[in-house]
Amino acid sequence: MSLQEKTIGKTKLLSLVEEAATLAAKNFNLEVWGIELLGSGTRPTVRIFVDTPWQDKVIPFVMPLTREEKSRQKSIHPMAKKQEETQPEEQKFDEESGVSIDDCAEISRLIGISLEVEDIFADAWILEVSSPGLERNFYQIDQLKPYLGHPIDVTLEYPHNDYENRRKFRGTLKEVTQETFTLTLDAPEGTDCVIEWDSVKKAHLIHIFPDTTLSKASRK
Questions:
Q1: 25: Cβ–Cβ under 8 A, 6 or more apart, which residues?
Q2: Mutual orientation of helices 10-26 and 101-118 as an angle, nearest 10°?
Q3: Residue 95: its pLDDT value, please?
Q4: What are the CB-based long-range contacts (under 8 Å, 24+) for 160-166?
Q5: What's 213's DSSP letter?
Q6: Residue 137 burial by Cβ neighbours in a 10 Å radius (0-12, 13-18, 19+)
């Protein structure tokens, strides 16, 4: 445990970091997705994830197109892209929207200034600011709600009551309540498993990468 944690406690430390991060992210219309305090001793690392506002979002799961499917789509539907460009901006999904590197750099600078003023770290420390990424970790149960129908990987603090000696689960997110969520498991296939959020050690989104291998027909 670092000197700072011994003095003010880890909970208070994270609270001060979150306050500084929230104010900095707000300047860019972003929100704090999660905060991690890693390491101890003389050089701790503060890792902060920021994202576009996620409350009340619904993110449909769409299997990515393979290279072959993209090629076939272009040849069959030459006007598809033109038609898509005529749609209202709010109806289109912009894959390039979100958090930029410049946003992260400026947010990091603002947070660093704020935390230096608070002087909560007695020694050198590392600050990292980034987006949550494709396989984002979840830090509170409400963050799961937009991802109904998506594959999730979960590790529990202790074995599940219904599965002897099993702490790791992978499946499709089926339902989310205030304190629990339900996965339709990959194994045993099709089995629903209710998990209490307080028992979760780590949960993250599984990103499905498209199969980029070409069929034999396309190689000829």
A1: 31, 32, 50, 107
A2: 130
A3: 41
A4: 160/193, 160/195, 160/199, 162/193, 163/193
A5: P
A6: middle
Contact criterion met (CB below 8 Å) for 114 and 23: yes
pTM: 0.77
Tokens of 149: 């129908």
Alpha-carbon Rg of the chain, whole angstroms? Answer: 21
The CA-based dihedral angle spanning residues 115, 118, 121, 125, taken in that order and rounded to the nearest 10 degrees: 20
3-state secondary structure at position 139: coil
Residues in Cβ contact with 174 at an 8 Å cutoff, skipping those fewer than 6 apart: 148, 182, 183, 184, 192
Q: Which residues of the chain have pLDDT under 70?
A: 1-8, 40-42, 64-97, 118, 122-123, 210-220
Burial of 188 (0-12, 13-18, 19+ CB in 10 A): exposed
Cα angle 157, 160, 164 (rounded to 5 degrees) comes to 120
What do you get for the CA distance between the two ends of the chain, in Å?
62
Give the contacts of 19 (CB within 8 A, at least 6 positions apart). Answer: none
Q: How far apart are CA 24 and CA 18, in angstroms?
A: 10
Burial per residue of 125-136, b for 16 or more beta-carbon CB atoms within 10 angstroms, e otherwise: bebebbbbeeeb
Long-range contacts of 8-13 (CB under 8 A, 24+ apart): 8/120, 10/37, 13/37, 13/120
